[in-house]
Amino acid sequence: RAEGIEQTSTFTGRVPHDEVAGLMAASDVFVLASEVEAGGTVLAEAQALGLACVATPTWAGRFMVEPETGVVLPTAAQRDDDALVASLTEALAQVTDSIRAGGYLPEAIRSRARQRFGEATFVTACRELYEQACNAITGSAESTQ
Q1: Is 144 helix (H, G, I), strand (E, B) or coil?
Q2: Where is the Glycosyl transferase family domain (predicted)?
């Protein structure tokens, strides 16, 4: 707020679970400023709604956000609060300027989300993961016999 972004931003604080989807659907940008974030499913959900994303450089942020779907903050943003605020301010300005200029089109973001996180992709990835796990177990069991 000290950076003057309260005129164009809504700071909700904690939101009841049943209100989250409605708030996200009414937004232009989704920010996930977590210090630690393993899965980051919420980033896929935001992209499925067509929202450009700004995320801290956690594993999830680096994996889930691509240049065409948003901005991942620099690693320096996690060093201290001042660096985080400066990085968030810069990233939000960059994303909102791009949206105003016709970038980060919601349909393009939704399409990319379907490609990366849709049902077919998810099922295929899970099947491959389970096959690898089973093969690893089977290979270990065979080598000890």
Answers
A1: coil
A2: 3-93
Average confidence (pLDDT) per 10 residues, the chain, 145 residues: 66 88 92 87 95 95 96 92 93 95 97 94 89 84 46
According to the model, what pLDDT value does residue 38 have? Answer: 77
In angstroms, what CA-CA distances link 96 with 113, 117, 132?
20, 24, 42
| Number of separate domains in the chain | 1
Distance CA 61, CA 75 (A): 11
What's the pTM value of the predicted model, to 2 decimals? 0.80
- Domain membership of residue 51 as a residue range: 5-143
Residues in the chain, total:
145
Compute the distance between CA of residue 62 and CA of residue 84 in angstroms, rounded to an integer: 16
Specify the residue for token string 């067509």: 50
CB atoms within 10 A of CB 130: 10
Which DSSP string do the residues of 103-136 spell out, in sequence order?
-S-HHHHHHHHHHHHSHHHHHHHHHHHHHHHHHH
In angstroms, how far is the first alpha carbon of the chain from the final one? 64
35 with 59: CB under 8 angstroms?
Answer: no
- Decide: 91 and 85 in contact? Cβ < 8 Å: no
